[in-house]
Amino acid sequence: MKFAVTSLTSENSSFLNDDENKPKSHEINKDKPDRRFFINWGIKLNINEPAIDELIDWIIEARETKLYRKSINKYRHLATVILLNLGVSLIQRRWLQIPRGSKNYAKETDPHTLGFSKRHVDDILSLLMAGEYIHEAKGASYENDPQYSSYQATERFGTSIALATFAAQTPLKKPYVRVNKPFKKERTTEENIVFKQDEKYLIRINNFLKQHSFPLKGPMTRVYSKAVGYSGRIYCDFQNLSRRRVPIRQASLIDGEPIAEVDIVASHPRMAVQEFYGEMIASSFYSDISDELDIFREKVKIFFRNALSSYSSQDAEGASKKDGIDRKDFQTLEKWVHEHYPQLPLYKGWSQKAMNHEGSIVKNVMLRGVNEGIVVLPIHDAVAVRRSDAQWASRVMKEEWKKHFGYDYCEVDIK
């Protein structure tokens, strides 16, 4: 049975495609990878969407030369992929990056395998720009982090395609577990055991989710950084739906029912204080510090995020400055930690281990969902479930925390 995957309608067009709510071009940089994403060549829609067909008809009519009959279906498929990715950019509030170099369309690349050519990609993007359907921010090349030309839908693009995009899917494709930029070519025996176990569990999770509906349905993937045991969160397209500035993810439906998000309160400080002091912090941890120091709660949260993830005080202060924390507030917060919890691992990149703990806990909650027929979607240190399953998720999250750490110190928040 097919279900709606969002409660948003055309009446929500005021924020679905409002230029004021979109990320700015200066935010496309190496330091903010969350503001951009690379094109998903495999995205598809299993139903006909008139708004997509109409815009593709316009693109074909606007061409200076006619397409060969045998090329039309492939051209329409490519145009659909580009338009759906632009729809994703709207509902995730991120820039879409598309490679324009010839090597990106060579044999054995994804677009070449699908029969997409660079010439047709250039053609479609040029026509969309000429028709003022998209903005372009030309890319810059960095040796270790290449950035491609970036695109964003204009208000002329409308909202019908964005609404249709919620139901877009990406076919399951292995691997479901990977290590980004590994330190070494060979994994240790212990790392291989964990890696293969992850593969087994992620196959179970993905096969279970095939039978259910949710926005931007696609594979769940566990991603480590450098080595097995670092980072290790579970990722999917759903979790990137805009939530804060524009309330899009909150309108999601799982199997046609509204969702609830169950997240660990102050996850990284909670783990750190538990590990280094054997203590449980209050659910009001950030608010208590905020009240004591007269610093906004959000700044307190940002400080801990940067201080526990950075490798130096200078890096943490620089990152915090970009997030609106001045030097005085940064040093006040730093002093508070040194006075109250001097053993906390500030400026040691400790968050990579914390994220791995989160990934393991969330994976186990998802597996218990599989066993009990409950859909659980990952959101970093949180999960999304149907509202009717929120209390189950709260209980299971706490149980899995205790199994993982041996401490019953987990506090969760249901939104």
Layout of helices and strands:
Elements (H helix, E strand, L loop, with lengths): L12 H4 L19 E3 L11 H13 L6 H24 L2 E4 L11 H4 L4 H13 L3 E4 L11 E5 L6 H6 L11 E4 L8 H21 L11 E5 L5 E5 L17 E2 L2 E8 L2 H11 L7 H9 L3 H13 L3 H10 L4 H14 L10 H22 L4 E3 L2 E5 L3 H16 L6 E3 L1
Parallel strand pairs: 1-2, 5-6
Antiparallel strand pairs: 2-4, 3-4, 6-7, 8-9, 9-11, 9-12, 10-11
Helix pairs in contact: 7-13, 8-13, 9-10, 10-11, 13-14
Beta-strand residue percentage: 5-15%
SS summary, helix count: 14
What does the overall shape look like?
Answer: globular
H/E element string? HEHHEHHEEHEHEEEEHHHHHHEEHE
Task: Give structural notes.
By secondary structure, the chain is α+β, with helices and mostly antiparallel strands. It folds into 2 domains: 156 residues, no CATH class; 244 residues, no CATH class. 43% of the residues lie in helices and 12% in strands. The chain contains 14 helices and 12 strands. Strands 8, 9, 10, 11 and 12 form a 5-stranded antiparallel beta sheet that branches. A hairpin with a 2-residue loop joins strand 8 and strand 9. Helix 7 crosses helix 13, helix 10 packs antiparallel against helix 11 and helix 13 packs across helix 14. The chain is globular, with a radius of gyration of 23 Å. The chain starts with 12 loop residues before the first helix and ends with a strand. About 1% of the residues have low confidence.
